[in-house]
Amino acid sequence: MFGSTGNGSSYHSFGIANMQSKSGLNIELDLGTINEIDMLRYKLGYRTTDEFIDKLVNLALTNEEVQKLL
Fold it and tell me: From first to last of its 70 residues, what are the pLDDT tens digits of the chain?
């Protein structure tokens, strides 16, 4: 079974979800992790998972760039 969560994520019945951020990053996660991400997203006030994933990607890239400078 395949479907969409309506926020840029897709899921299928064997518990793996494929998320793609607006920046084009494709992330494959188990549904337990997706639920944890979604709960954290909600607690931090992001309206959509896409918006939250993009923020995480930007933070990760920024952190990587900072580490290179150190």
Answer: 334 444 554 444 445 555 555 666 566 666 677 788 788 888 888 888 778 878 877 887 777 766 776 6
Q: How far apart are CA 33 and CA 11, in angstroms?
A: 12
Q: What is the value of pTM for the model shown?
A: 0.44
Number of domains in the chain: 1
Q: What is the DSSP string of 39-69?
A: HHHHHHT-SSHHHHHHHHHHHHHHHHHHHHH
Rounded to whole angstroms, the Cα distance separating 56 from 53 reads 5
CA angle, 16 then 47 then 7, to 5°? 35
